[in-house]
Amino acid sequence: MNLTMKVLNMRIRMMLFCSLLLLIACESPKQEISSRVNELPYYSEASFTPQWFDSKLAVPADFHSIPAFSLVNQNGKEITQDTYKNKIQIVSFFFTTCPGICPKMASNMYLIQEEFSDDSEVRLISFSVTPDYDTESVLREYADSKGVKDGKWDLLTGDRSQIYSLGRNAYFIEEDLGLAKSEDDFIHTENIVLIDKEQHIRGIYNGLNKTSIAQLVADVKTLESS
């Protein structure tokens, strides 16, 4: 066999091999992260120590839950805890002028929004930690720039003390345990918290980490099926 035929045969073999790889890739299912457990734990304090119950009915009546609040969103609409009745909530804290972690978090929140775009059971909430600056009009402009969908993702502003109390005492959004803080101490965190339909905390995630975001998506689906 001359050199030309050898080269031709080698090219044919390579083409057949590449075609086989392409066929296998097309037939392989998309890999997704599965939830770590069949049932998600509950959390009641800032250490995020997991607690387990046999069923929803077994959760104590006085178990930690998100308290009532009243704020306004990017459209000037009043938003209360009742707005999210029977909704799974994905919660973050941000401010519109943040040059650091907030833009990346907003991008990942957008990905979550798109994942559950047609799912009426899931809502996204982002509380502004600079509500004096982040007025309704500022939030409206920010929402437009980040692809926020009205009715799916609320950017909330209002009373600063209420927002900070929610962040620290209800959502336990910060990680620096044991440090006494006042309302004057700024909240700045990459954490995202998952809340179930009964207003209980069911997970905390790094809003900058794609793997953590994928786990959040998987855990939301676990909540929906439980």
TrEMBL record:
Disulphide bridges: C98-C102
Keywords from the named record: Copper, Disulfide bond, Metal-binding, Signal
Residue ranges constituting the Thioredoxin domain according to the UniProt record: 60-225
Pfam families reported in the protein's UniProt record: SCO1-SenC
The keyword Nucleotidyltransferase is assigned to this record: no
PROSITE patterns membership: PROKAR_LIPOPROTEIN (PS51257), THIOREDOXIN_2 (PS51352)
Amino-acid positions noted as binding Cu cation in the UniProt annotation, renumbered to this chain: C98, C102, H188
One GO MF term attached to the UniProt entry: metal ion binding
Bilayer-crossing regions: none
Coiled coil region boundaries: none
N-terminal signal peptide: 1-30
Superkingdom to which the source organism belongs: Bacteria
UniProt key word Signal: yes
Family: Belongs to the SCO1/2 family.
PANTHER family for this protein: ELECTRON TRANSPORT PROTIN SCO1/SENC FAMILY MEMBER, LINALOOL DEHYDRATASE_ISOMERASE DOMAIN-CONTAINING PROTEIN
Protein name according to UniProt: Protein SCO1/2
The organism of origin for this protein: Algoriphagus chordae
